[in-house]
Amino acid sequence: MLKLANIIKNYTMKDQPVVNALKGVSVNFRRNEFVAILGHSGCGKTTLLNAISGLDNINSGKIYVNNERISKRRVSKIDKIRNINIGYIFQDYNLIDNMSVFENVALSLKLIGIKDKKEIQKRVYYVLQKVGMYRYRNRYANMLSGGERQRVAIARAIVKNPNIIIADEPTGNLDSANTIEIMNIISSIAKEKLVILVTHEKELAKFYSTRILEIEDGKIVNDIDNKDVEELDYK
Description:
Elements: E1 2-11, E2 19-29, E3 33-38, H1 45-52, E4 60-65, E5 68-69, H2 75-85, E6 86-89, H3 101-111, H4 117-130, H5 146-158, E7 164-168, H6 176-189, E8 194-199, H7 202-208, E9 211-216, E10 219-225
Parallel strand pairs: 3-8, 3-9, 6-7, 7-8
Antiparallel strand pairs: 1-2, 1-4, 4-5, 9-10
Helix pairs in contact: 3-4, 3-5, 4-5, 5-6
């Protein structure tokens, strides 16, 4: 499904020493699991997510998505593989404020080449119902609360039915009630897909994830199957 082999990522800035963000990271992800990536700020968590999704070029190593290499390839090829296989949920939502909820989600389908209006409507309505946002389908994104915006962002990520969902601190801007609701939605997605979540909240990771990766200073220092994960009743 997803394989990383000896990933190295360095950043160079003018008049600054080289930053070694990832130092030989190797890990295999299973087809259906909920993986939480834990670590302090600046340890390399987001850099790892960006490398996996092809948003950030690596210096060396290999990354395979569904047996297709996305490292060291043309940008257009990486974009194609990513758009088909990976859905990304951002902490700050990344919605287009002057577009409706429907239009924001539909945009994800248009990017992978789906043009049929009936097919787009069918798929968008389906995922909006799944995340409880169907009644707001015609509302502009800038009129939504934080929890509502993140639900739309989740719908946008899953509408193209990708194999992998990447979530970078998706509850970082939410209150506790919305955090639980969003995490329940993401956990239900992990029943059928690979979900990779970055968080700094250990208790959240222990409660929801089936596997925990701990990163320190650009390296994976722990890879644990979470046998204490709670059995939740999703509604």
